[in-house]
Amino acid sequence: MEEPLFRSYLFVNISLREYQQVLQTDGVVRFVTFERKPVPVPEEQIMAIRQFLNLEDAPDLMSGKFEIGDRVEVFRGNLKGLSGNLVEWRGKQKVRIEIESIGQSIILTVPKSYLKVIPTPKTS
Questions:
Q1: Is the pTM for the entire model greater than 0.90?
Q2: Is the Cα dihedral 91, 5, 36, 27 positive or negative?
Q3: Fold of the domain built from segment(s) 40-117
Q4: Cβ distance 74 to 45 under 8 Å?
């Protein structure tokens, strides 16, 4: 049995002129928005997800220091460019990363050595 990677989400590549037309499609409820404006998902993140789905084998996990809640980015391999928040470790090779632009998480099999922490600006 197959199921969608992100339940209840459909990605569309449209122009702003097509926005209202898509909203009138049966089953479409709304777009992912921020401050009432549609949020585009960067093409490199879509490509990284597609490449991930085509992976057959994942390399072994290597050491690194990451904490739950860290902003991380995959900086090499098939998922290069994918970024989000580290939500949890799942076993030895799997991590759950929340992809900010769609507010959903995905379970990834990626070595720690392929991840880097993205520094967040410090507030004073």
A1: no
A2: negative
A3: SH3 type barrels. (2.30.30)
A4: no
